[in-house]
Amino acid sequence: MKVGILTGGGDCPGLNAVIRAVVRKGVQEYGYGFVGFRDGWRGPLEGDTVPLDIPAVRGILPRGGTVLGSSRTNPLQHEHGIRRIRENLAKLGVEALITIGGEDTLGVATRLADEYGVPCVGVPKTIDNDLSATDYTFGFDTAVSIATEAIDRLHTTAESHMRVLVVEVMGRHAGWIALHSGLAGGANVILIPEQRFDTEQVCAWVTSRFRASYAPIVVVAEGAMPRDGDMVLKDETLDSYGHVRLSGVGEWLAKEIEKRTGKEARTTVLGHVQRGGTPSAFDRWLATRFGLHAVDCVRNGDFGKMVALRGTDIVRVPIAEATARLKTVDPKLYEEVGVFFG
Amino acid sequence: MKVGILTGGGDCPGLNAVIRAVVRKGVQEYGYGFVGFRDGWRGPLEGDTVPLDIPAVRGILPRGGTVLGSSRTNPLQHEHGIRRIRENLAKLGVEALITIGGEDTLGVATRLADEYGVPCVGVPKTIDNDLSATDYTFGFDTAVSIATEAIDRLHTTAESHMRVLVVEVMGRHAGWIALHSGLAGGANVILIPEQRFDTEQVCAWVTSRFRASYAPIVVVAEGAMPRDGDMVLKDETLDSYGHVRLSGVGEWLAKEIEKRTGKEARTTVLGHVQRGGTPSAFDRWLATRFGLHAVDCVRNGDFGKMVALRGTDIVRVPIAEATARLKTVDPKLYEEVGVFFG
Amino acid sequence: MKVGILTGGGDCPGLNAVIRAVVRKGVQEYGYGFVGFRDGWRGPLEGDTVPLDIPAVRGILPRGGTVLGSSRTNPLQHEHGIRRIRENLAKLGVEALITIGGEDTLGVATRLADEYGVPCVGVPKTIDNDLSATDYTFGFDTAVSIATEAIDRLHTTAESHMRVLVVEVMGRHAGWIALHSGLAGGANVILIPEQRFDTEQVCAWVTSRFRASYAPIVVVAEGAMPRDGDMVLKDETLDSYGHVRLSGVGEWLAKEIEKRTGKEARTTVLGHVQRGGTPSAFDRWLATRFGLHAVDCVRNGDFGKMVALRGTDIVRVPIAEATARLKTVDPKLYEEVGVFFG
Amino acid sequence: MKVGILTGGGDCPGLNAVIRAVVRKGVQEYGYGFVGFRDGWRGPLEGDTVPLDIPAVRGILPRGGTVLGSSRTNPLQHEHGIRRIRENLAKLGVEALITIGGEDTLGVATRLADEYGVPCVGVPKTIDNDLSATDYTFGFDTAVSIATEAIDRLHTTAESHMRVLVVEVMGRHAGWIALHSGLAGGANVILIPEQRFDTEQVCAWVTSRFRASYAPIVVVAEGAMPRDGDMVLKDETLDSYGHVRLSGVGEWLAKEIEKRTGKEARTTVLGHVQRGGTPSAFDRWLATRFGLHAVDCVRNGDFGKMVALRGTDIVRVPIAEATARLKTVDPKLYEEVGVFFG
């Protein structure tokens, strides 16, 4: 049996660990052959492949990014896109497809599976951890670790100069990275896209922190928005996803804090460093297990499914269902964490 | 209300995060007062306390170890130990006790609660992750991260010299650290206490790895034992828990591999570095949430319970039940990982 | 004898290591008493002090920032500033001053020493490594390490998406951080303030890198400027020194590269994370030795001097001379490194 | 012109950076061809080579170890060893040799150059930093960083349990790693091979540290020896250099401390992790500059020389002279650091 693999969307630490696990188990246990498609859906669309055997996956476990390359190519936006994919798969003798990606990438897989009968297995990938069907996605732990380490470092600068430091982290629609790294980093304010923030309240927390002779760290997700909606949009800025970004909320907030509290404030936008480099041990473990279970899905003919983490188990869920709903931060959890604000 | 806190057993990254969370929430939301007991059960046994208020927990989140100190003092082994504890608690006006510790520490809490009606709440702590009631314990992720980083480093030495490197990691009764760090570090053999290993099989994996022109890394838990039971015990060695250790299995294995395969082999015993230093972001998150929920147990009068992680939720389980059974590595999981051996 | 200590200017990893070494040696070997002044020159100007004895410096070696606080207060800009300092020193019985800082801070020390006979010893501090009298300043190695780690991480993102990544690092007047981290991180282009860059040449290197099937990393010091001077200035931006910044050169360059090469480009501005957090082992060593030798200067009555590193030796140079000339990157060294461009 | 490269002796972070720099500059600027010899002197002895061009050195900068492999093969111990090397070099058309190694490896190069006229250029390599001609060798900073990080971690364990922690680091003949990491890690005692230690004095420091309510960290170089020479040798132990080791001084010392002070003591032997993995930014910089200057030596026909660091300059020194004398820790420097003992 010949199985195709592709990685789509933004890169994410752990992609290579998935690829390696799929190939190792597929070749050794099931005798499969593999075809790597380049740059997400562009690969099968244009028939652009790389050989993928055991030597090809040696040494890639600790490497960030994806040896297959990635892109945001959406075959649904190309004329006869799906037909061309089917033809290319047929030409290459590829009988099943393992697609590693987020909502968009897996959405195409659903269409391929549902409408054209292409046997697909999904592996969830989003650094933002906002897929509802799985407890965690790989890459998230690495991003949180990097952001936490940055916040640890910024504390000393904040305190030496008695300044406010605003740290803008990734998270356009969900505040998971902000919430976890803010908590782990001992931030004094954490702002997430799920709940519009009250700039006055933020300033009150900042002021109360100074009153206790400490300098405040404010962690803000890039998608967070003020309630008192006078944020001036900064046009032409692309976010870390390559989309036009609503604003530079970190910079905006630092200026507002300076204006309203009279304290010096600085912004740091962590940006791409959050998604690059070697995956954390947790992400290597999760990504590897996702890969092992994905190839088992193929083996069992269990298509249209996505692997997911539940507790410490890897389970299978329908792809369509898994990508239907964004997993946002529960207001109760946000409130729980709120005890550390101010 | 006045609440006592103690940390018992081996130190573990995340203990301070628990203490901080308990105190922050307890003082701010519930108006509690806190008393820190020094060095585990020695504190209440001897009435040795430290003041514990919000200033006392400032800045401790990222610090490893425990500001309260720890010990293996077991009041059950002291004459009238339990009675002395009750008297000291009464004298100090302590109405509830939050005990952070492993099997032994929580076992005493169970006795105190069951037999003497002392209201106790437990927070599980074991770097080995071998408590059955919780998906993970804090400290484990840090230990796995440190071990994985060490294995990453050892690969280059192994390959430059075409040597076998045997890495001995913590885990006397359960192989979780070996399994996770071995998988994440791309080890070629992982040996755990749950399953006696066949030295011939290990040597076969080693040899096959060299045949593929790569140098093998063997990760072995300190409690792993050979099936072909001729391991010479190294007397008088203490393990990282302060107990007499069965053997120096890493050193023994390296010598056997040299003898049987003719290849050079070296051992590295990671030792105490696995349990020291700043907790990982994951462990800070988990430990903080355990602390927040432990103080909620006190608030709800829900005693005799231990907080535990299930998926992404913090739940409450009876302490007695939680410590009854060691959580060992499931043979199926070990087999799943075995695809990477050799 | 009573000795005052202050830290001025931007914070820098290693400041606490200097303070600890001064106090440890001064108290233990010479029996000195110490007075810490808060927030740079603001401390002696306003008589704002902190007690500084051995317990006060325990545990501060690995901590970034400065326990004394810092500021950019310049007493020369305050009416009777110098006189007020002399009066406050006299009132406190402070007979000598150890000033840890950059050009500005040490400049004041020179004035104090030369014009008013206040016995001063200087310890050089600049994260930018641009003081001519010393081989290296502490903090620089930490900044380079953090920037290098970030560049390591960005490589995988660049290659997964075949994008240009522009990394803006600190360095307003000197390109040391860019040069060292760019070389260590395997950057394909490094741009420094010492030499205006030719945007066309940068684009040619970028294009040639893509031709070799690799994605380019461009490291640019914040003070670098294009030769073809059409860079649009971004007003109101403060650089990491708290001064108005000439431009957001990283963002500007990424846009130019996109426009001229047709390739996607993204910017990451590392910002404050470069100067915060625990110092590297090298910086702890250097800062500690600076501290030990600074207190020896006091002991020897050798005032008006600054400690400096020459090879592996700590030497003494006149403060005035030391701060007279900026140490910029030698064109020959820049050319030597240029072999890796493109 | 065709140039051979080999790496001999123990592996060391930075070897690949040297190789890459030599090849990049040699090919691009001088049009040289390169031949890589496998496993140190074994390569030219047996004519075992690997192709070495620009694609072969891509991506190796951040990788520890050596892509050429290493060994301790000494051609002087093989019959007609030198003659066979000359014949193999002639057969391959190799006109000059760049040898990267320590005393032993460079010693052979000297013989080859002096007695047989083989044009050799040396690049110093010793993780121990004990070559007299150069301020620093690459690999040393990485080893010190890893050891310092380990010591940082061990502090929390020591203090949580009020135990002595003895950390054994590399350094058979010179105490540089112990001295630098011990100082940077805030150790309370540092023991080096250059000066036999007085166990009673060590115990006095340990006791005094406990008296100040802190737990002591003792850093000991593997080659350190007690003055009161009753150390029981542990036979058959190999040190990290593959030689029979005199003792397990760390373990011995921990037992003595327990016996004499009555305090619990534990040992951690850092071992191979000190020499593996990605080089620090400093080592990448140094190793790269060594490589660039080594190929310049070839270009200038300046043979029999070794590149060396003096301050911030790379200079050339006669190989023979460079390896004649071990660079040990100056007693004055050791005394300077001694202010932190106890």
From TrEMBL, chains A, B, C, D:
Gene behind this protein: pfp
Catalytic activity: beta-D-fructose 6-phosphate + diphosphate = beta-D-fructose 1,6-bisphosphate + phosphate + H(+)
Annotated residues for binding of diphosphate: G10
Major enzyme class: transferase
Residues carrying the site annotation Important for catalytic activity: K125
Activity regulation (UniProt): Non-allosteric.
Cellular localization per UniProt: Cytoplasm
The protein's name: Pyrophosphate--fructose 6-phosphate 1-phosphotransferase
EC nos: 2.7.1.90
Principal localisation: cytoplasm
Subunit structure: Homodimer or homotetramer.
Cross-referenced InterPro entries: ATP_PFK, ATP_PFK_prok-type, Phosphofructokinase_CS, Phosphofructokinase_dom, Phosphofructokinase_III, PKF_sf
HAMAP family in the cross-refs: Phosphofructokinase_III
Binding site for substrate: T126, I127, D128, R163, M170, G171, R172, E222, R266, H272, V273, Q274, R275
Pfam families noted in UniProt: PFK
Native organism: Streptomyces plicatus
